[in-house]
User: Which sequence fits this backbone?
């Protein structure tokens, strides 16, 4: 798929910026705090309806303006798609496809597929399990927009069940409304089992792809594994055991749940163990090795989305290129070639291999304005 045009109106520090993308790679160059990441964030919002930087729409609207708009024209194999997202400082957002407001978020997801890779992604290795769950869920939503709906339902039930446990606790009554609790348990286990199965299936497909990339980049010396560790322990080869096992483990933890007044069983406590040569990646090796791992995961993600969707997704590289050594930069370049439309931010063009400038267009970003930069032929 190819993003042809993007129009930002009162979005972050952009007042009114129209961008036409004319090359497989677009490099946004500029000093700090000029709006490079903001532009990528706009694309992320069209892709996932979420920003990894904020959950409040008011942050996304230009200071002093009441509303913001992101409009895009996307070319897919099936034809051209117009996407629009209108944001307000207070009030609901509106998402439109071909100028028609969609009723459910779900109907907007899945048009623009994108994989993001930013310097913050090292947290995938170093951070807590929550980081890895967010990543897993993000990939799953791209593969299957319906998953967004499932996850939302699960989180809703989890919230209600937790509120119920708090009520029990504050009233000092473990026997408060047992029928109610049975109902929450059933719902949590039904939705939770579906979340677990999808995470499991996806990781199974992703792991061999990530291993191949990891071996290529690390020079075959290291063995990567992605091991799904669902909080509900069960025999992963017996999916029909999952639901009863989920209920049984809630039963086992009932007293602890009452005392802690929170749900202790379910995919909201899942983990993915990333290991290199049997050592947890978090403890393993240098920053460079951790970067190799994240790069392998991202390339695997790119490949899996392309396999499932049938079209290459966009790649968004925020600040990350300069952090990769030449070998890793070139691995990445070989992987994406000109097939994956790529948006790249950087503070210095000289920070990466000149090969990147082939088939690239460059925009300078300054205080929310873009201007085309003519490439110096000696660099190209
Ligand atoms: N709602 C908003 N209204 C106006 N300006 C905003 C808004 N949100 C963010 N900004 C401004 O946008 C700028 C940050 O933009 P961005 O994160 O895109 O920077 P960047 O070019 O990626 O910089 P870096 O190289 O440091 O990553 C800051 O100057 C910030 O004040
Ligand atoms: Mg930035």
Assistant:
């Amino acid at each position: 798929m190819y993003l042809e045009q993007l129009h930002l109106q009162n979005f972050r520090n952009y007042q009114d910026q129209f961008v036409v993308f004319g090359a497989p790679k677009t490099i946004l160059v500029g000093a700090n705090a000029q709006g490079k990441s903001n532009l990528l964030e706009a694309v992320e919002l069209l892709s996932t309806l979420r920003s990894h930087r904020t959950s409040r729409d008011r942050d996304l609207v230009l200071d002093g303006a009441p509303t913001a708009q992101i409009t895009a024209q996307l070319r897919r194999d099936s034809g051209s798609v117009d996407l629009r997202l209108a944001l307000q400082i207070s009030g609901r957002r509106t998402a439109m496809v071909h100028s028609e407001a969609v009723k459910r978020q779900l109907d907007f997801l899945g048009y623009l597929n994108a994989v993001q890779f930013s310097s913050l992604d090292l947290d995938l290795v170093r951070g807590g399990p929550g980081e890895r769950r967010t990543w897993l869920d993000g990939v799953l939503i791209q593969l299957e927009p319906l998953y967004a709906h499932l996850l939302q339902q699960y989180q809703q039930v989890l919230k209600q069940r937790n509120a119920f446990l708090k009520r029990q606790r504050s009233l000092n009554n473990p026997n408060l409304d047992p029928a109610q609790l049975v109902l929450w348990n059933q719902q949590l286990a039904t939705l939770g089992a579906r979340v677990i199965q999808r995470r499991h299936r996806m990781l199974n497909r992703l792991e061999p792809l990530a291993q191949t990339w990891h071996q290529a980049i690390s020079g075959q010396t290291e063995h990567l594994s992605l091991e799904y560790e669902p909080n509900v322990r069960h025999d992963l080869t017996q999916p029909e055991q999952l639901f009863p096992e989920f209920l049984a483990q809630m039963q086992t933890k009932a007293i602890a749940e009452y005392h802690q007044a929170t749900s202790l069983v379910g995919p909201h406590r899942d983990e993915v163990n990333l290991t290199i040569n049997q050592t947890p990646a978090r403890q393993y090796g240098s920053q460079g090795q951790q970067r190799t791992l994240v790069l392998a995961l991202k390339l695997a993600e790119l490949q899996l989305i392309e396999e499932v969707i049938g079209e290459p997704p966009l790649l968004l590289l925020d600040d990350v290129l300069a952090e990769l050594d030449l070998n890793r930069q070139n691995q990445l370049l070989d992987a994406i070639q000109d097939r994956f439309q790529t948006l790249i931010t950087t503070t210095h063009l000289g920070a990466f291999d000149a090969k990147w400038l082939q088939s690239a267009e460059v925009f300078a970003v300054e205080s929310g304005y873009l201007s085309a930069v003519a490439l110096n032929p000696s660099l190209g």
About this structure: The domain at 1-113+312-380 is CATH 3.40.50.300 (Rossmann fold).
